[in-house]
Amino acid sequence: MSCACAIRAASWARRERATEAARPMVCRFGMSDVLGPLTFGRPVGARFLDTPVSLGEERNFSEETARAIDAEVRAAVTAAYERARALLKERLPVLHRIAERLLERETLERAELEAIARGQGAPARDGAPARRGALDEGRAP
Q1: How far apart are the C-alpha atoms of 118 and 137, rounded to whole Å?
Q2: Statement to judge: residues 79 and 129 lie in one domain
Q3: Domain ends where: 69, 88, 107?
């Protein structure tokens, strides 16, 4: 599998997990301002030797409500996506400094990560001074 295909597959899997997390928030836990504190759908299952077996969910709502649920799930996933993008964009310089240090050292201790996040150079480790990189010197990587 090519690298681009692997990245697309991983991206798809993350979107699927996000959607799977958002749907119960809307349908089970009533975390929707539009639909209110109601639950939608009813678990259907069988018990065999005291072991529950899930057989899916019974749909106990209209097509109009299904569309509203889909819209709320989409809104929740989209809001989380936009928040993640904004955080990554806001913290991109720190992420670049962390990546540079990882290229230099392969591993970082918690104190080193915290120092980089505060905008300080990574502290010396094992008595050896931290090597200054292009980002610390104001150059482009």
Answers
A1: 16
A2: no
A3: 88
Q: How many independent structural domains does the chain possess?
A: 2
CB-CB contact of 77 with 18 (8 Å): yes
pLDDT in tens, 67-112: 999 999 999 999 999 999 999 999 999 999 999 999 988 899 999 9
For the chain, where are the E strands, in sequence order?
Answer: 42-48, 51-58
| Residue 59 DSSP label | -
What pTM value is reported for the model? Answer: 0.65
Q: What sign does the dihedral 58-69-82-7 (CA atoms) show?
A: positive
The H-or-E segment that residue 26 falls in is: helix 3-27
